[in-house]
Input
Amino acid sequence: MTADPHRAEDLDTRRPDLASLTGLRSGKRSYYREYRESDERLARAVRAMDSISRALVRTVEGPRGLLEEVARTASAHLSAQWTLLSLADGQLPGARPRFVVVDSERRVVEDEELPAGVRRELGSLRAGHQAPVIDTRGWVRVPMNLEGATVGGIALLHGLPSDPEPGDLSVLRILANQAAVSLHTSEQFQAGTALHRRAQRLHDETAAQARDLAERTAALRRAQDRLVVADQWLIVDEERHRIARELHDTVAQQVLTVGMTVDLAERDAAQWQEQHGASTAPIRQQLRVARDLSRDVVDQLRQAIYALSQHRDDTVRSLPELLSELVRQHDGKVSVRLRVHGTEIALPESVRHELTRAVGEALFNVKVHSGATRAVVRVNYRPDLVIVSVADDGHGDPAQLRRVLRVTMAATGDGRHRGLANLHARITSTGGDLRFRRSRMGGVEVQMRLPLPLPDALDPGLIGHLLDPPPVTDQATPTMLVTGTVRALSHRVRSRS
Output
């Protein structure tokens, strides 16, 4: 059968073009070596790209790890004896590292270990000198470009049997540009890190200054509080000393005169009995009671004068400290002890003062009226309550005290029998309440309970309650103060007799 020439031509046009597929003119055996070399270069390029892709995802090592991997990949691609990657002086000044050098064994070499020829090539790269892409000595140079500007370059002393092909240079340019981008990112990161460190340092300095300012402000407030208290105590101390002088010069002398008059009356009664033979024993017994009471009054006056004359500390003191001093003053014929339970809670100055004065009033009642030999002052701190109590082993009756308090608060008079009412007024002024109960010691327990938190508006004032009785006001003259004290003492003498 005769072949159709047109059909043969159509068959030839449908055959694959080996030259277009392999880059070679034909598949003849004389071009097999070129085909193998092209295939090896392509394989090296793929390995290079794979190596760089692995380096890109290792963020822990920073830019140095990527640059070292770029240098090793370029060295492996061209079988280089030396591979240099360097930034030009003045380019990307914040980027680190500035250069990387790898030898034929892919080891990173420091600058001082480089041969003279390699060091000169590195100096040329760092200086930004333009050099041939491929020279006769076997050096291959590719610039590192960033945003259209040359910022450094890669130089390799290749070990290929012939000069690198354009595809090899393309691979090097990709590696160089990737290195440039990494260094630029490193510079931006370093700048951001430095800015962050500076911002953090400024924040720390600002915080330290704020703490220092807060401490200084608190110290100034404490100093201001001490100055206010000191000024108040100065006014009160002057008034206390003046009252102490008047008590010593007038009231104490008069009470002493009363006592001597009672002694004279007792002797006169004894003489009258001897002269007339009539018994005066009941009268003499009453006179002896009056004499003993006058001596007690003198002792109490002396204690009051001593207390009024003492210098007051201008330091704001806690409630347990105030009560400890009060217990020490009352400890004597009646043994008085202080017990504190729970964690101390800070109370306003006015509240501490009112509680201390209330405890003092209760201890005075124990000493004068209860017949007790022991008393215990307790302070119990709770999260929502402060309880201050005075318990004794005397013969008092809580029910009787409650009745006396109700009658006293409902009655009006000359100020007698006002001890319980004054104690009740002090506690209620702080927002608390007063209770009477039988103590475990057998006597009476006076309980003062303050719910927490205290009312915000609670501020009865400091000076107006430091002198008692009566409080210091614009209308309270020294004579009224002395008269009130003498009236209270006189009532106690009458109640004892």
Observations:
- The beta strands are 82-87, 99-103, 139-146, 149-157, 335-341, 374-382, 385-392, 433-438, 444-451.
- The radius of gyration is 53 Å.
- The longest strand covers residues 149-157.
